[in-house]
Design brief:
Shape: globular
Number of domains: 1
Order of helices and strands: HEHEEEHEHHEHEEHHE
Structural class: alpha/beta
Strand content: 15-25%
Radius of gyration: 17 Å
Number of helices: 8
Largest sheet: 7 strands, mixed
CATH superfamily: LmbE-like
CATH class: Alpha Beta
Strand order of the largest sheet: 5-2-1-6-7-9-8
Length: 240
């Protein structure tokens, strides 16, 4: 008997809107893997990738070039149809909140190579607002870009999902999942393989930025719906 979820995902065009490289995999790597396995399309739009001085005792610094290469490897593992980075100005990395929301919305809707007017996604994943100013800015701009319009006027996303992630636990607004995707077995494995590609961003246990944190969160969300592993989302809109 055909899997009803696969039958649904087969016809989807998923766009994952990520503030930085690695957020797309942490939040929706399993969903991406499931959509591709079912035969659907997946596009990833990363807002900014730049030079980064790590906020830890090591004093490490990572070049934007390294993060772009890591992102490319992660996208190969997940097998996405296409991906892009919207902003290449290193001075704006971790300063996306300084861009007027109208300008950021225009990038997402019209100016990006994978803008919603071009890819016309049926599903879109947004980052959850959290302590990170870039995540907050991209969430607000993404939500604005998803405002409902007549389909003839503008691409209409029938499903708008807000992604879970380990860092969301530190936020003034608690994450309340209302939409789950079973990513047991090969889908969790693929998600972890893709996240491991972001080598410069990996942290040792028990950091929220570690590979083990991603696995534990997936297993915990799975237990909430009695499966081995799951990704959880807040459902902002779902039109049948």
């Amino acid at each position: 008997m055909p899997d009803p979820l696969n039958s649904f995902l087969k016809h989807q065009r998923l766009l994952v809107l990520s503030p930085h490289a690695d957020d797309e995999t942490a939040g929706a790597g399993g969903l991406i893997a499931r959509v591709k396995a079912a035969g659907g399309e997946v596009y990833v739009m990363v807002t900014s990738v730049g030079n980064l001085a790590h906020f830890d005792a090591t004093g490490r610094k990572t070049k934007g070039k390294t993060r772009r290469e890591e992102l490319g490897e992660a996208m190969k593992v997940l097998g996405v149809d296409d991906w892009e980075i919207l902003i290449h100005d290193d001075d704006l990395h971790l300063r996306i909140d300084t861009i007027p929301r109208r300008d950021l919305v225009e990038l997402i809707e019209r100016k990006g190579r994978l803008a919603t007017e071009k890819t016309r996604p049926t599903m879109i994943c947004l980052p959850a607002p959290s302590f990170n100013q870039d995540h907050e800015a991209v969430y607000n701009a993404g939500l604005t870009a998803c405002r409902p319009h007549l389909a003839a006027m503008k691409a209409f996303q029938r499903a708008v999902l807000v992604m879970d992630a380990p860092q969301v636990s530190w936020s003034k607004d608690h994450f309340h999942p209302t939409f789950y995707v079973d990513i047991s077995g090969p889908f969790l494995k693929r998600k972890l393989e893709a996240f491991a590609c972001h080598k410069s961003q990996l942290r040792p246990d028990p950091s929220q930025g570690g590979l083990n944190a991603i696995r534990l969160l997936a297993e915990w969300r799975g237990r909430e719906i009695s499966v081995k592993a799951a990704e959880a989302f807040e459902c902002a809109r779902f039109v049948m």
